[in-house]
Specification:
Number of domains: 2
CATH superfamily of the largest domain: Zn peptidases
CATH architecture of the largest domain: 3-Layer(aba) Sandwich
Strand content: 15-25%
Strand order of the largest sheet: 1-2-4-3-5-16-6-15
Number of helices: 10
Amino acid sequence: MPAELLTQAETLKDWLVKTRRDLHRRPELSLKEKNTAAKCADEFEKLGFRVRRNLWGEGFIADLDAPKGKGRVAIRADMDALPIQELNDLDYKSEIPGVAHMCGHDTHMTCALGAAKLLVGQKDKLTRGVRFLFQPSEETPPGGAKGMIEKGCLDGVDEVYGLHNHPKLEVGKVSTRIGPFSAAADTFRITLMGRGGHASTPHENLDPIPAAAALVLELQTLISRRLKPGTPAVLSVTQITGGTTHNVMPDNVFIQGTVRTFDEPTRKLLEEGIGQMANATVAAHRLKTMKYEFERGYDSIVNHAGAVESVRRSAAAIVGDSNVSIDQPAMTGGEDFAYYLQHKPGAFFFLGSGNAAKGINEPWHSPRFNVDEQCLVVGSAVIAKLVTG
């Protein structure tokens, strides 16, 4: 059956490419995926799936039962695009100004639809049912996963899987890992409050600018001196705002950044440590006070060992053992697929979508991001194999 699935997926390639390009031309932002969801749900209904629309936002589920089996596996696809102006010179480039599928969610939806077509052809042989979860708002915290789960998208599901294209992984390859796959992605915000005044008389003011500069440097010691060497974590200051002109000291300076961690103790240490350092900076620079906010974003994806083995075995059946890795380094990006795996066993994996020889290797969220569309064939077959076992 594996060779047969790949052969059948190859026969769908023209349809897969057309479907992906149609989705690519008409991207929609988080929580605005109305036309995207309608198009995909219509396709499932044409295939004979039982569809429940508007489960949460524009998210929907599509079920296909196994007449001779029991149980159900879920496959998740995300639908939202990014607020980015596409710079690719393509005849199917985004037609929506300032909005584009520069993370490849159009690819994920197309692979899921392709797998659905393959599975309908195997319906009488299925030993378990399948549910496709088409989720809105993966790109924008708090995301759509929690809402979908609260509305019952995992009810009656035994396992759940998700994939993401990877432009740095050559097309035809699949990669995953046991345990932490992605980072918890959190945001911190600090406002240092001093007292502004004329820049020529700094002794009469409480200048927050040198305090902010000192704090930015000091925060890095949380990684280098507070964490055990080898502990994976990222702390990046990404925004500093303060002052309006050359001869006026401001009252306040705003600092914002991100923290990426892979376990709860490290996450908590950094959350508390940032606040402690901000307070110490206020004291050291004689500022009035400070305001600190630590906003928790998506949790870390933690793959289950048995499900990773299912991905490895299924992908190897499609692309060969040499093209499948279970040693994928954990990524520091965030993904709300994490929440599905807190409720059901499953795994997240990368689908190679790059082709260095063709110059297709721009990173996610680049305005020139693209995929080698052969990944649509591979992804459809791998998903179908995951379902059929």
